């Protein structure tokens, strides 16, 4: 049995996603992770799913409807920004888990990754987690360093790397007063 980034991510989500959580699938792509997340947050939880392509958003919405999970998910056409998160969540609502999955991207735009991470960070609750999923890239450590510079307050990080990609995990910690 070989290690893979996809397998790590699936195991992580199976263990971490609980009922009643508020989860953002920030780069939902084909919506496969959105459906998985919706099935795990339960009837009282919620998933906010962002799609760059309207066609992907429509397919995900149809799939959720067919699975009876549409009440747990808000499907958005567009990318994660502070404005879109504020519009959907309000000023006070904080997120338990936020995924930014770039694993299917052919070209990685470090600036776009930084912008989306920086926009998402303030919406994580204390103890909330941000996962950044990358395909195989040269020098993933440089991307990690770049992302870390944009975060306010204390946080911890972990990295999982395999032959098919890398996942960065960030956990927001409460400010020591």
TrEMBL record:
SUPFAM superfamilies: S-adenosyl-L-methionine-dependent methyltransferases. InterPro entries: SAM-dependent_MTases_sf (IPR029063). This is SAM-dependent methyltransferase.
